[in-house]
Queue: 2 jobs
Job 1
Amino acid sequence: MNTGNIQSQHLLGLKSLTREEIESILAQATVFKEVFNRSVKKLPTLNNKVFVSLFYENSTRTRASFDMAIRMLGAGSINFSVQTSSVNKGETLIDTVRNLESLGIDGIIVRHPMGGVPALIADHVKVPVINAGDGFNEHPTQALLDLFTMIEEKGYIEGKKVAIIGDILHSRVARSNIWALTKLGANVIVCGPPSLIPIGVENMGVTVTNKVEEAIEDADFVNVLRVQFERQKGNFFPSTREYYREYGITPQRLKRAKDDVIIMHPGPMNRGVEISTEVADGPYNVILEQVTNGVAVRMAVLYMLMSRKTTI
Amino acid sequence: MNLHLINATIVNPTGQQTGDILIQEGKITQVGKHIAAPDAEVHDCHNALVFPGFIDMHVHLREPGEEEKETLSTGLSAAVHGGITAVCSMPNTKPAIDNEVFVKFLIDKAWEINKARLYPAGSITKGLKGEELSEMVSMLRVGAVAFSDDGFPVENMQVLRRALQYIQPFNKPLILHCEDKALASDGAMNESETSTVLGLPGIHAVSEEASIAQSIEVAKYFGRIHIAHVSTAGSVELIRFAKQRGIAVTAETAPHYFTLTESSVEGYNTSAKMNPPLRSEIDRRAIIEGLRDGTIDAIATDHAPHAVDDKHVEFNNAKFGIVGLETAVMLTMEILVHREGFSLEQIAKLWSAAPAHILGVSGGELKVGAIADLTVIDPSYTWTVEPNRFFSKSKNTPFTGFQGKGAAIMTIVNGQIKWEAKNGR
């Protein structure tokens, strides 16, 4: 199956991708998801390739998901985290990635607490750089797996109402979702307390509300963002209790959505903060399916970046 | 050697004239047509503008402590290369300039270097900590011209009140870096749609404005303040209103705030990272209008040299600040004169008379008896910024490749040519 191509050498974010590029990644992921249904789960597609996972921030599922995707493509990976690295010895980020490149690795998967770091790395290495989450900026593979799941559930995205609820200000998942969903023609509404809504987000093609009922009304998808407990200390809201009362996704509130509304969450969930247990475990949640799809989407990204005809 | 500038367009804050200037023993001794001075060195200033020396009242020269970024020698050389005849150095060196020994050290060393004049600012509080007052009077006795905790706000209004009261008999300005640190938080650029799109933590305009408003209210009762590096439309409005109310407040802005906007940060460009940050186009327009109507009294560069390693890192981790001494004249001429139609008299005021007046130092007018500090500018010389030609030790500028019209072609300090362009420039 010809799944098209992507122009960029790196996957830094969805901001800079076209609708066609996003769709071609999702199409490739469909092919890879079929592999899951086979008894032998490994493809020799990227034999002998070695990726490094460079994580400057904690992660369980994204890191494991990339590892899984790498293995399924027959490639290998080196995990590298700040706790065990020379970063603590004062090495700069740029020196670190140049050293890794000199080891002969074929691609860098990076997560970092600061926005723009994957772009900085991409400026200093020749191998593909894949953003696994940078600050508040982007988490492109998370948004791709969200879109993949949406299409799997409802067939298409164009015209669907997607509510993104929670801490939009500090959310790279929200930003990547907004960039991709608006390109694919979704009707996106973001909702949260005004202290957690970033300035100018309405100019990114979304509707903004702080009434959770309005956000949920007739929604096809509700993407519930994790609300970090630490934000309470920054006075973005007074307590998780009040947050839950005003913005928590409960069965009662969900009655306003479409009957077949799909509930999504990038994880890890805070039950009783942004989402009630009844909803988290309810009939239309696809939260675990999202995790499975994450592997297929990351396989697609790795495969497409590595098989791209480079100009080097 | 006496200097005889002929055929010059002599620009003063009060008007222009064409003619000659004779300089003898560090002083201007004659201004007029066809001066006869047979023993003086003649410089034909045909097509050039001769201004009273430009005084940059806000620079960081990094010595002592961070000589890898700049030294007094490289900084004062960069100044004259950029057409600046005098600078006021901020005291946030390592250690901070918070006693008379350090002030004396700077003055003596600058004297030996013999390039631009150095007017040191001492700190308002010991170690710039915002707690205990520095010995400001001891520092002014040895030559400090102003006091500032620049780099940090004086956040405690009681400290600001006491500092203003204490220094009041000496009529020296307190130069305030107005920033509410809690509001600014860990921001790295202007908080706006651009920071939302880039996913960077923002520094909201209110962090500057709230602090200015508070400082103005203290100044209303207790003394004179000078607001450093004004960057927002709201700040301009606050200062305009304060002046209408008769409060003793003056202000400066930097060339980057009237030239660039936050869009320069796109691509995570650490060369465009400074504090306060580049703001919106609305703010940039308001800064220009504030300069035009005199709300903002002076232009100063906030020259802030940083080593390559300080900028070649994650955007959030990059140091705040850009160099400015060697691009200031071109940006002023290109943006304010050529594009915005500012008069040359206004430029003489913004770059010379106003800073001289605020700091209480010589300069600001070309007249008989004045000190012979002069900035000679070719207003039509077009050039492109190339940081490797800077005399400054640091090259951290967002203006690489920026092209504009206007260049300093001769810098005279104390009657001596400290820098002169060769090859027709």
Job 2
Amino acid sequence: MTTLELSLSPDSWMAVCEEARLTPGRGVAALLPDGRQAAVFRDRSGRTYAIDNRDPFTGAQVLSRGLVGSADGRPFVASPLLKQRFDLETGRCLDDDEVAVTVYPVRTK
Amino acid sequence: MTTPTIVLVGHGMVGQRFLEALADRGVTERARIVVLCEEPRPAYDRVQLTSYFSGKTPDDLSMVEAGFMEKHGIELYVGDPAESVDREARTVTARSGRVVAYDTLVLATGSYPFVPPVPGKDARGCFVYRTIEDLLAIEEYAKTATTGAVVGGGLLGLEAAGALKGLGLDTHVVEFAPRLMPVQVDEGGGAALLRTIERMGLTVHTGTGTQEVVTADGAVTGMRLSDGSELATDMVVFSAGVRPRDQLARDCGLTVGERGGIAVDELCRTSDPAVFAIGECALASDGRVYGLVAPGYEMAQTVAATIAEEEAGNGFTGADMSTKLKLLGVDVASFGDAHGTAEGCLDVVYSDSRSGVYKKLVISGDGVLLGGVLVGDAEQYGLLRPLTGTVPPVSPEQLVLPAGAGAPVALGPSALPDDAVICSCHNVTKHAIGQCSSLPEVKKCTKAGTGCGSCVKTIEKLLPAATDKGLCGCFSYTRSELYEIARTLRLTSFAALLDSHGRDTAKGGEGCEVCKPTVGSILASLNNGYILDGEQASLQDTNDHFLANMQRNGSYSVVPRIPGGEITPDKLIVIGEVARDFGLYTKITGGQRIDLFGARVDQLPSIWTRLVDAGFESGHAYGKALRTVKSCVGQTWCRYGVQDSVKMAIQLELRYRGLRAPHKLKSAVSGCARECAEAQSKDFGIIATANGWNLYVGGNGGATPRHADLLAQDLSDAELVRLIDRFLMFYIRTADRLERTSTWLERLEGGLDHLKDVVVHDSLGLCGELEALMAAHVADYRDEWAETLDDPERLRRFVSFVNAPGAPDPSVRFVPERDQIKPDLTILTIGNLEGATSR
Ligand code: SRM
Ligand SMILES: Cc1cc2nc3c(=O)[nH]c(=O)nc-3n(C[C@H](O)[C@H](O)[C@H](O)COP(=O)(O)OP(=O)(O)OC[C@H]3O[C@@H](n4cnc5c(N)ncnc54)[C@H](O)[C@@H]3O)c2cc1C
Ligand code: SF4
Ligand code: FES
């Protein structure tokens, strides 16, 4: 069974869930030890990503519930509230250069 | 080197723009910035102030993006005005006693409303119209008033009058000048405006001054006018012009103009080089005080550039006073030399008092357009203003005559010169807009269109026409083409469709937030399966994914189906009990059912278990699917009813429940022609006749209301159902994404006649197939919530956190309001929720 792990600092990893819990193209939310929340996704080809769960435009912790898509070959998630898109690899907002969300390293084990 | 301090006094529209300009230029990184703000809230959109009365909240009006101050390290002190400036010591003292030392001081204190010194002006019931607090006070007082008078028939006065009228008051406007809006429009324009405004039921008194506010027990009871008459009124709003707020500057010895305003040079520097003044408080170097926001924005840019030492010298030398407004629903615009003051200039006037349209252009002897006034129809403003200063490519008469009268004008924005300013709020030229390819891009790169919005239409005309009709970046096909592809090739997977029919750049990719739900809906319409299994689960919008509607704080609403709006007392009690036990906010919707708000994602299954047990099912409030079939009480009770409208509404709602469509579907059934169920505003509406039913289609409420068209008359129950089956399936098959039946019908080639041919006369031989598709839908329908609750695997997604299944989301919190709950939005403004606790 493969476990998905997320890293908060260079050499500490925390287990999030079994990889199989993730539907390709969708996300789940994980509660981090410091009270923050991460949005963890898996795409069609099985790659996994994690970014902060907080939608910076509305403040709501909902990015994990957005739809995953790709543009120019790069994966993104669209916020379910006002639909701004965030690059899953860099956290950059594709609709507003000034905005970005934190990205967390992930691995499977 | 020590960090310099910039102090901004006044956090209004111009002050905020100044802060943004500093941030854009990176000044916020090298200077300490302190803002003293008098009002109890940060900068908001004063220009849109009146929209408070049409439902905008103070928060909606805010001009400060969440996190802006924190991000740029700006210290903002709300509710703490500057009281004095010591220019020698370079300090500002605020009301709280706070003393801030500055290297550079920027005054952006705006204006105050001028109140003529008439007796009684301070009585209870007298107001001004400038701040959100003013509007709140007016709204409160108006609750007990029946009549209101506005002193001043200018731009703001008419806006205030519109607001009073909207609050249900019998409204009067008293204007000293002989016409309305004397500054902006000329006599003819004023007359056209007057006619239209009187037609709306306002009483206008022009050429009349206010001598006294009559009071009893300290409260307004009326006004004495200069012609000796008395006007009975419960409240008075003064809107007799504004004066620059220059007291702070006066007190510290800065030069001010004879008639007010802090005197500044082209760089907006006051008589003290360390002090700048911008916006409505400044007396510009051309000797004018500008009462509009666009010139203030230009001043803000100038000062920010000077402080950043980038482009000193590119100063503010005066601005265009052009305006376009919608006052009380009437378009009014003036631009350039509207009053024709230039020597030797000529007028071209078109006036039609029946329709309240008045247009005047001012032309110089050699044919140059100098300015103009448009009342009642300002469609051409976006084109005419940038043409000012040039010789227009067609004759002036053609520019003012309505389309159809005289030679048709084939003049679009393409005729404009490259340096024509298209957006005057942000000073953006045609050339700059030409660098972009879509409206969102224009807004992002140039800010054009993000101010008053009046230029958006012109901008759209300048952008390359959308020749690519494709659904999105992933598909070059439209929704209806994709429907046909999926249907004929019997495709059941999004990935297969994308990889076989997607654009080359998108094949093998993820799709996007546009095509995934669209294809999800097509597959659901064609296959009728449970929408949340396998790949389908990854296609649904978040609302469908959780079978509930997401609200602004990430919580959800729950809407059980109540067919036809008919409900037993027992079921009503269950809804009440569920709402009470889970602490949900409860509201009767506009669709004759009950919405329960504020459920956390992990509570949805327990809530629905209770509802399903009591016999409820999903109301599909979340889906692009049938919403409600509203119904009047009908023949059973109503003395006028000719058919049983409730029975028919329930039958139709149960038949079409769960049907996935390009957009939501609404319906209603009325028991007679009195139409209490508003069936003609629905996608399909039914009105009872003595002989059966009339079927109307393509109606819409919402943003672009449309009355439904009559499709067929005097149908029997069976004929009615069969025709609706065909109509709905034909729509589902051929409509575009997010196209309601109203827009679809408008677009359909051949319109209503073609629709009749296809669904009534079966001209395409499609009807058998359409009926079969609907029969399959009806046979296969199962309640999504019951199916979800039955399956532990499906229920696993309903957790707040995948790694802490029992834990509630601490960011979903509520505060009390009117004996129920509402989202606690303050918690959403905190980035890190460390230590936050659940409700
Ligand atoms: C709850 C309700 C307001 C209320 O408190 O009364 C409501 C609430 C919403 N409406 Fe509505 N509409 C509600 C009746 C209406 C009506 C009146 C009616 O149905 O008789 C209309 C105008 C009639 C019409 O649609 O033609 C209406 C026109 C809209 C529109 C504009 C549609 C249009 O074609 O212009 C939208 C936006 C959209 O669908 O794209 C919308 C969208 C919404 C959404 C779904 C917005 C959203 O995505 O969050 C709201 C979600 C509610 C929720 O979370 O449960 N709502 N909405 C009403 C629910 C009725 C019901 O029982 O299902
Ligand atoms: C109802 C209405 C409709 C309007 N419509 C339009 C329109 O359609 N188009 C248009 O161009 N313009 C319009 N205007 C005018 C526009 O709002 C102003 O031009 C614009 O707000 C000026 O910006 P400002 O920052 O100079 O002043 P303001 O927005 O008035 O801001 C000045 C701020 O400074 C504060 N202040 C004053 N003294 C102090 C002090 N000592 N210490 C701290 N703070 C202080 C004030 O409280 C205020 O918040 C409208 C105005 C109103 C009221
Ligand atoms: S529409 Fe006719 S039958 Fe129905 S409630 Fe109104 S008056 Fe009565
Ligand atoms: S002119 Fe106001 S937004 Fe462009």
